[in-house]
Write a structure and sequence with these properties.
By secondary structure, the protein is mainly alpha-helical. The protein has helices at residues 7-35, 41-65, 81-86, 137-163, 175-211, 216-223, 226-240, and strands spanning 95-96, 103-104, 108-111, 116-119, 123-125, 130-132. The structure holds zinc ion (ZN) (2 copies). One zinc ion (ZN) binds next to loops.
C-alpha cells in the first residue's frame, strides 16, 4: 500500500469525492424525493445509484492505494553507470534508471511525482494520486467505467425529472423549491457532462494502449521517432566525439562542449 504526498493529487481526490457526494445529494434530495417520492422508482433509483457509487469508490480507493507496479529498489554496482546510459538499448533489455538508479525491466518508466520506476507505466494520474501501471490499471479502468455509468445515470435522472416532474401523486408547487431544484439539476447536468466526456476520452486512450499493447509514453517515443533519432545521434557522437554537432566536421580535439542526450524511457 502506498500513498503519494502530492498536493495536486490530494486536491484532485478531494474534488472527486466532493463531486460524487454532490451528485448523490442532488439525485436523492432534489430529484428522487421531489419527482419519485411515492413511486417504487424512488427507492429503486436510490439503491441503484448508491450501488454504482459504492463500486466506484472501491475501484477508486484500490487505484489510489494499490502498488501500481513499483520496481523494487535494487542498486547494483553503478561504477559503469555512464557507459550503460550511453549504450544503445534494445526493447528487451533491462536498463538502469538515471534518476532513481534502479535496475528496471523493459517497459518500466520513471515517474517524477512518485520518484520511482513503475512497470508498464501508463501515466501519472492526479485523480487517483498514483501512477497507472501494470498492477492498478484494472482498478483505474473500473473507476473510469463507473464514473461513466454514474454520469449517464445522473443525466438520465435529470432529464426524466424534467419530462415527468411528478412520478407518484405528490408534486411540490413551492416556487423557491422549484428554483433550487432547477439550479441543482443544471449544476448536476454540467458536472456529469464534464466528468463523463473527460472520462470517455481517457477510457478511449486506455483501450488504445491495451489493444495496441503500447503505453502512451512508448507511443510518444516511437511516433516522434525520438528513440530512432537518438540512437543515430549517439552512434554518430561515438565516432565524432561528445561535442556539439557543429564541431563534428572540425578536425579538432575531443573537447566536451555538449552533453549527449541519453536514451531514456523517462518522462
Ligand atoms: Zn526511476
Ligand atoms: Zn507516479
Amino acid at each position: 500500500m502506498s500513498f503519494i504526498k502530492d498536493p495536486c493529487g490530494i486536491v484532485c481526490i478531494l474534488v472527486t469525492y466532493f463531486a460524487i457526494l454532490y451528485a448523490d445529494y442532488v439525485v436523492t434530495q432534489w430529484i428522487i424525493v421531489y419527482s419519485m417520492q411515492n413511486s417504487i422508482w424512488g427507492p429503486v433509483n436510490v439503491v441503484l445509484f448508491n450501488t454504482v457509487i459504492f463500486f466506484l469508490t472501491i475501484a477508486h480507493l484500490k487505484a489510489v492505494f494499490c502498488d501500481p507496479g513499483l520496481v523494487p529498489i535494487a542498486r547494483l554496482d553503478f561504477s559503469d553507470l555512464h557507459a550503460a546510459r550511453n549504450k544503445p538499448m534494445s526493447d528487451e533489455e533491462w536498463t538502469v534508471c538515471t534518476r532513481c538508479e534502479t535496475y528496471r525491466p523493459p517497459r518500466a518508466h520513471h515517474c517524477r511525482i512518485c520518484k520511482r520506476c513503475v512497470k508498464k507505466m501508463d501515466h501519472h494520474c492526479p485523480w487517483i494520486n498514483n501512477c497507472v501501471g501494470e498492477r492498478n490499471q484494472k482498478y483505474f479502468l473500473q473507476f473510469l467505467v463507473y464514473v461513466c455509468i454514474l454520469s449517464i445515470y445522473s443525466v438520465s435522472l435529470v432529464i426524466i425529472s424534467w419530462i415527468y416532474p411528478c412520478i407518484g401523486d405528490t408534486c411540490s408547487t413551492d416556487l423557491s423549491e422549484t428554483q433550487s431544484r432547477m439550479l441543482h439539476s443544471v449544476l448536476l447536468l454540467l458536472e456529469s457532462s464534464l466528468f463523463g466526456l473527460f472520462v470517455v476520452a481517457i477510457m478511449i486512450d486506455q483501450l488504445h494502449a491495451i489493444f495496441y499493447d503500447e503505453t502512451p509514453i512508448e507511443a510518444l517515443q516511437f511516433r516522434s521517432g525520438y528513440r530512432m533519432a537518438n540512437h543515430k545521434f549517439i552512434l554518430l557522437a561515438n565516432v565524432f566525439g561528445h561535442m556539439h554537432p557543429a564541431y563534428w566536421l572540425f578536425p579538432c580535439s575531443d573537447a566536451k562542449t555538449y552533453d549527449t542526450p541519453l536514451i531514456s524511457h523517462d518522462v
